[in-house]
Design a protein that fits this description.
Elements: H1 10-18, E1 27-30, E2 35-38, H2 39-42, H3 46-49, E3 53-55, H4 59-65, E4 83-89, E5 92-98, E6 104-106, H5 115-128
Antiparallel strand pairs: 1-2, 1-3, 4-5, 5-6
């Protein structure tokens, strides 16, 4: 499997940086070049210090960022939980996010993603909503 399929894409990585996620990962995108570098290769470079590189989060790193369980305490939904999960079929990974009544929070059929991008989009959604 290609490394690009095991880390968040440059687009998702940029969005996560802009959303304020820590720039601390094993892999980094060289922003203008679209290549992936290991942290050890760049950690002492001036470009790294100046923020030129963007974290390319692995599935494992995203697992550390995401909560084990998300519960919406909004009383409109009674005492039931919202559902947020990553699904996979023959075409790839996609997100399913529904409130306690089964209404979609986001459209799960928009696009197929790598697992890393699906987790990254989930983290972005939760951050935007102030849930992480």
């Amino acid at each position: 499997m290609k490394l690009e399929n095991q880390v968040t894409s440059l687009e998702i990585s940029r969005q996560m940086k802009e959303a304020g996620f820590p720039q601390d990962s094993y892999w980094y995108w060289a922003e203008d070049e679209g290549i992936i570098c290991r942290h050890e290769q760049i950690k002492n470079s001036e470009d790294y210090i100046n923020g030129y590189f963007i974290s390319a989060y692995t599935v494992a790193e995203l697992g550390e960022i995401l909560p084990c369980r998300y519960i919406n305490d909004d009383t409109i939904y009674s005492d039931e939980d919202d559902e947020i999960r990553i699904c996979k079929d023959e075409d790839g990974f996609y997100l399913v996010m529904r409130n306690a009544y089964g209404d979609e929070i986001i459209d799960a059929t928009i696009e197929y993603l790598t697992e890393a991008d699906a987790r990254g989009k989930m983290a972005l959604y939760l951050k935007k909503e102030g849930l992480i």
